[in-house]
Amino acid sequence: MAECELGCLTRQCLAGRRLEELRLLQEQIAAWSADLNARQRGVDRQMTAEDVRRKLKSVYSKIIL
Question: pTM for the full model?
Answer without folding.
Answer: 0.50
